[in-house]
Amino acid sequence: MLEQQIQQQFVDSADLKYQWADALAKPVSEAAQALLTCVTSGCKVMVCGNGASGALAQYMAALLIGGLERERPGLPALALGTDMATLTAVARRGEFADAFAAQLRALGQPGDVLVVLSSNGRAVNLARAVEAAQEREMIVIGVTGAGGGELGRILRDTDVHICVPNERPARVHECHQLILHVLCNCLDQELLGDEETAA
Question: Which of 15, 18, 97, 164 is deepest in the core (most CB within 10 A)?
Answer without folding.
Answer: 164
